[in-house]
Write a structure and sequence with these properties.
219 residues, alpha/beta, Rossmann fold, DNA polymerase, domain 1, six-stranded parallel beta sheet, two-stranded antiparallel sheet, 40% helix
Length: 219
């Protein structure tokens, strides 16, 4: 595997599985709003979208005030339950530590709120294990806009040709393409390998260890 100067990651379904918490929060809001027919799988397929986008996709509601109210309700519930219902993928600790040993810079770009990612990571690490986290509150335009990746590259002082972005969804693939960086599809979530075929990517893998310098991943 090529060695990069910086390795950037999505969070949900890339570094951690928070699907149980996400489903709990969405179902609570949706049920109280009368949308009792939406399945857990339908919710999981929206992971990676903004909360407003996810609610709109599942319900067909486009009213901005309603979507904003649902987002606030979701956040209020998530502040109580999300971190307890989130699981770090087992290889993540090793991968981040080995990247640091190689002198690589690391970052997270997610539609999830930065404070929630920070709070979760500090449950598992003595200090934040990455150099920078860009959350949904830190950008004006969410993924697949390249804004978060471009801002991260600026802060880390790296050029696009020296960056690998890792994510689990076609939103992440499009984000990498729009930012002009290499992309690794991490098959931890609900997006199949075939969905990544239209996008430029380095490879697909179900194990983050494969991104490490010198590894021999299977495409």
């Amino acid at each position: 595997m090529k060695e990069y100067e910086a390795y950037l990651f999505d969070f949900d379904y890339t570094l951690a599985d928070s699907s149980r918490g996400i489903v709990m929060c969405f179902q609570d809001v949706l049920n109280r709003a009368g949308y009792t027919h939406i399945s857990d799988d339908a919710i999981k397929r929206t992971i990676g979208l903004t909360l407003e986008e996810a609610f709109a996709e599942m319900t067909g509601v486009t009213d901005a005030a309603t979507l904003a109210r649902w987002r606030k309700e979701y956040v209020s519930i998530a502040d109580k339950v999300m971190n307890d219902a989130t699981m770090l993928f087992p290889e993540v600790t090793e991968v981040l530590a080995r990247l640091k040993e190689h002198g690589a810079k690391t970052g997270i770009i997610s539609t999830k709120y930065r404070y929630r990612i920070e709070n979760f990571l500090l449950r598992h690490f003595d200090k934040l294990p990455v150099d920078i986290i860009i959350g949904g509150e830190d950008v004006n335009t969410p993924k697949p806009s390249p804004e978060g990746v471009i801002e991260t590259m600026k802060r880390l002082g790296v050029k696009s040709e020296n960056v690998l972005y890792c994510g689990d969804s076609i939103v992440d693939a499009a984000t990498a393409f729009n930012a002009g960086v290499d992309f690794a599809a991490i098959i931890h979530g609900v997006t199949p390998r075939s969905a990544f075929e239209p996008f430029p990517h380095v490879f697909c893998t179900d194990n983050l260890v494969d991104i490490l310098p010198g590894s021999q991943p299977t495409a």
